[in-house]
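Input for the complex:
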Amino acid sequence: MTRELMQLVVDGIVEHSAEVRTLALVPAGGDLPGYVPGSNLPVEWRTGRFNSYSLTGDGFEPAAYTISVRRQPDGDGGSLWMHQLRVGQTIRARQPVSEFPPVWSARRHLLLAGGIGVTPIVSHARSHARWNHDFEVHYVARDHVLAAELAAAAGDKLHLHGSRSDFATTLTDLLVRQPVGTHLYVCGPESMIDAVREAALAACWPSTRVHSEPFAVTLAPGEPFTVRTSRSGRRVQVAPDETVLSALDAAGLSVRSQCRRGFCGECLTGVVSGDVIHRDDYLEAADRDAGEQMLICVSRARGELVLDL
Amino acid sequence: MTASESESESESETRMNVLADDEYENSRIEDFPFPLEKASIEPRVDVEPALAPRSTAAGTWGGRALLVNHNYERCVRIRSRILDRDPVRFTSLPHMLPAQWDAMLFLMRRLGSEYPDDFALTRRADGWLWTNRRLGLEREFAFGDLSSLGMEPLEYIGRQVQEDLLLLDHRSARLYVDTVLVTFSMGWSPTFVVGMNFHEVHGTVPRVMDDGTVDRSERFLSTMPIGELYRRNPWAFQIGGRLDRSKDAFPEWTPKADAYLADPRLDTVGTDVRMRSELSHFVRLPLTGAVLYTISVQSISLEQIASVPEWSASSMRVIKEVPDDLVHHKGFHVYGPLVLPYLERSS
Ligand code: FES
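Predicted:
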């Protein structure tokens, strides 16, 4: 899974307020890959540490990746780092990850944004505008930092709300008057997502038409740990974004593998000892509990793992 | 020439015709994706990352995702003829238009990078220029503008690749086959599966429904990282080189195949019977996340298999060891009695 990181240069910065800035990132060389609307960009803000930010373009042939970042003084430091970047600096990022895509077959799209959660909604709105889809946007915030961007895509289909209580009265009405086949997308604070889900349920919306959370299981990086091979007596470090398989490979210990995604079972390996975190889609629950085997292309461990190799 | 000789001559001519309509030529063993290097016949998640070259007892294959070989012109000609005659072989639900554009660009880019002498996709000020030197085509088009292609994007590119193409859309936690451009399928009806979900499509393959393989395959396909190519290599035996073996065309070819099987020519079995590989690639497309599934058909004759002792041995082993419930699915009840004696004789 360790794909090469992209080198991106900060090409432009717009300060919307003391809290929110938008960065335009261009490739240090070559073309930027396109992306599915609603994708996010994992940016490396400290070696091996990534924070993901929603891309706000429609994903087609991007000349630049644009992300908007809210300063979070009590966060892990990633947003503060993003806020001290200056034009011309080079940063590193992974390929965009799609975890909040539009449903292409929907008859209509109802987009609800709260606060800085507006960023993927801008991306969706731009894509719907490109494809002439039927859609409507509601943007709830004290200061509507990306209102201009949204208005450019949505025109009179954009509705601004100054507060959540203000929006609450609109919401119920909005939910009941949507035609069958409408899909709803909400991005914002968790409390807003919960409130929208509840209201949708009360208005008899099928839960499969309400989208808020990532649906895809991605191979997120994990904590680093050590692997020891009991037969060949080797000791290998597995970095956060490596897998056991790739780490062994790099150390010159080759193990049979095929899909490298935890589906086929080819890399099944005996566990001598260790606290395994299973992440495959192959083993039965009972096998996992037994803890005697693992799929080393995806699964990880805490502390030291001893493998029968 | 005696009377009986000329009679057998014309008889063999009809046989030749049986084998010649819509045919494509055999592959070379040097780059044939021989599917039985790891001899296992169980339907399971048999996927691997694509583009890694694989060596076989006779050569290597797999460095590219798309096939453009000596059959290229012939394949696109046959496909165009089928599409003209039977337009529903390309069927796409309306919401798949963005995914079609996505797929077309993806295929054009790959063709350009895998066969730079033959194909090129070039950025123009307000659109693109597509060049296909094999067919002598040049086309300027604007993304999203149907009139600049003259037809829907998947059909446009589908008429210029050897592969059959399918697009799968992910919704309500299921994958749906919402677009097909399939003219060379083997015993299934592409037009019948449009709009079906992954489970419904696989309803006829023994075992896979019960043991969760379909579920796992579906999860695999719908969670592939965007842009990463994977492949699998299903295969079967067939008589002759006819490409279109779909259910839609059964009346055209099954009687001839049945007639052959009822009275096989033991002296020509080695060239009449072929192993057909349906090397398939799949990728989640970068702009829509839809899954593009491509199938390229290639074959080699029993004679060619017999020329590689390792291939001959693993083919025989697979036929002999196939579990009972899969014998019919793989067609071994029909082909086993033709293939086994031939390979045994020539090994
Ligand atoms: S390589 Fe397929 S499960 Fe690990």
